[in-house]
Fold this sequence. Notes:
Layout: E1 4-8, H1 13-23, E2 30-34, E3 40-44, E4 52-56, H2 64-78, E5 83-88, H3 107-118, E6 122-126, E7 141-144, H4 147-154, E8 162-166, H5 172-182, E9 185-195, E10 198-205, E11 212-220, H6 224-235, E12 240-248, H7 254-259, E13 265-269, E14 281-284, H8 287-298
Parallel strand pairs: 1-4, 4-5, 5-6, 6-7, 8-9, 8-11, 11-12, 12-13, 13-14
Antiparallel strand pairs: 2-3, 9-10
Helix pairs in contact: 1-8
Amino acid sequence: MSDLKLFSGTNSEYLAEKIAASYGQPLGNRTIKRFSDGEIYVSFDESVRGKDVYIIQSTFPNADNLMELMLMVDAARRASAAEVAAIIPYFGYARQDRKDKPRVPIAAKLVANLLSAAGVDRLMTCDLHAGQIQGFFDFPVDHLDGAAIFIPYLKTIQSDNLIIASPDVGGVKRAREFAKHLKADFVVCDKHRERANEIASMQLIGNVEGADVILVDDLIDTGGTITRAAEVIMGKGAKSVRAICTHAILSGAAYENIENSMLTEMLVTDTIPLRKATTKIKVLTVADLFAKAIHQIQQNESVSSLFL
Length: 308
């Protein structure tokens, strides 16, 4: 009998089912419902005593996803699970990882504290907005690299002049890693914001004339940065512009911004479900990557061996 049990929160069940199928074990039975005032009720419908319990739930808005996850963790702990691992493909509140001005919270640290208080023993996530967030946790963090999904696809693109681009200075390290794997050059878009989700100006650092450009980012929210970057790059003589991002938040007018942009296509993963279909967005699944990582952990083998 397996010493592992997989469970899913409500809004990540679409992905959890694919992870479970790839791993070769069905999702466990649980009940999640609400009282009439909206309060969440959780129970496991099978024994988890002495088992390694993996709970799959991305923490994209609204905050009920995070609350549901913590209740499931607490229930597993109180049911004598041997170890409780939170699989959070998209780790919400990661953009608030420092005090960039007075009197603001460090939300990523607060969420880390909440998960610790709930009883999480291990965290598995993918492409954190800032890698140093791993240091907010006092238990093991398996930080999976989305490049392992994107690079094989990008290698199928036929181009004599492929260039990787970062849509902002903060993404230079990510762009450099992609450029190294694809043996390509990279350029940087330097943007200036006056307020959140609004770009005042953007300049391109590097030459893209006649190139097929790949914009690399960890997440896309309104789509303003990525579509503006595509416009600037095409204005500098690029032949085509594609974008890849791990977490497709896509709020506000993002779908319209992308559909009407100069992007040839956008590659995203299924850490967050798309709200609607669009001709320019192609979804690659992270299910196999997470399933392989779970297997490696259960066998006490290296997780980093899964990466490029």
